[in-house]
Amino acid sequence: MKTKNLKKVLLASVLSLGLIFFIGCKEKGDSSILKLSHNHATGYPVDIAYKKFAEIIEQKSEGKYKIQIYPSAQLGEQKASMELLKSDVIQFAHVSTAILESFDSLYSVFNLPYLHRDYQHYVDVMRSEGMQKYYESSLDKGFAVITFIEAGSRNIYTKSKPVNKMQDLLGQKIRVIDSPSSIEMMKLFKASPTAMNLADIYTSLQQGVIDGAENNWQSYVEVGHAEVAKYYSLTEHLNLPDLLAVGAPFWNSLTDEEKQMFRDASREVEIFFAELWKESENKSREKAIKEYNVTVINPDISDFRKAVIPMHEALVKRDSKSKELIDYIKNYGL
C-alpha cells in the first residue's frame, strides 16, 4: 500500500513539473511564444482586450512575438501568477494593485480611497506619460507594469440596511479584499471589515455571515450578489485599477525599440478596453435595476472622504517615492 501511494506522489510530482516546463517553454524558430495569465472568464471584457493585445503585438512584431492567453486563473490566482512571472515561466500577468502592494509597497498608493477628484481624473492620470517611470520603477523587484485596465469605481452594497451616510455602516460586517489598505479603509468607515475570497461572498451574504461587500457594477451583478444584497450605494470610494505586469527577465531582454512597441500596443488596448468596459458597466447597471430590483443610493460621501485622510497622510510620510507619486496623481491636470 505504501509503495502504491509513493508511486502516486511521484507521478503527481512528475506531471506538475512537466506542466510548468511546458508552460515555460518558448517556441523555437521564427516566433517566440509569450504567456499571459488572467483570472477572468473567456469572453469577459478583460479576456477580449488581451486577445486584442496579442493580435496587435503579433502584427507590430511581424510575427516575432505571439502571445498565448491563459484565462480563468488556469495558472493560479494573481499572487501565484506574479511568482511565475518573476521567474520567467510566464511573461505577462493581469493583477490588481491590491495584490501588487505585497510585491512593491509603492502600489499601495493606488489603493488609497478617494485619491482622485473624479473618475475622469483617474483615467487621465493613469494614461498619462508621466506614469511610465512609476510603472517601470519595480524592475528591481522582478516586474514592471505596461498598461492599466479600468476596473470601474467600487461601491458598497448591503443586504438589509441601506447606506445613505457613513454612520449607517457602524457595526456592519463588510467584505473587503484581503489587503492592508482595504481593511484599514473599512475600519475608518466605522464598519467591521471581513476579508474573504470572492467565491465565498454569495453564501456569506445569504447566511448572514456578512452584511455587505464592495465592488464595481460588473462584479456585483455577474457573480450574483445583486440577487441577495439589494442596496447599492454609490460611495465610489475606490478607483482600483487592474494592471498588466510584465516580468523583468523578459522585459530586460528586449531592445529599446521592442519595449516601445509593447508600450504602444498597450496604449491601443487601453482605449479599446475603455469602450468594452463602458458598455459592460451600463449593461450590468441596467440588469441590476430591472431584473434584480436593486435600489441605487446616492449617499453623502463627505464623511467618507474625511475619514480616510489619515491614510493619505501616513503614506505621504512613509517614504519619498510614495509622496512623489501621490503628489503627481493629485496635482495632475490642475
UniProtKB/TrEMBL annotation:
InterPro entries: DctP_fam, TRAP_DctP, TRAP_DctP_sf. Signal peptide: none annotated. GO terms for biological process: transmembrane transport. The keyword Signal applies. GO terms for cellular component: outer membrane-bounded periplasmic space. One of its GO terms (molecular function) is carbohydrate binding. Keywords: Signal. CDD domains: PBP2_TRAP_SBP_like_3 (cd13671). NCBIfam families: dctP, TRAP_S1. This is TRAP transporter substrate-binding protein. It comes from Brachyspira aalborgi.
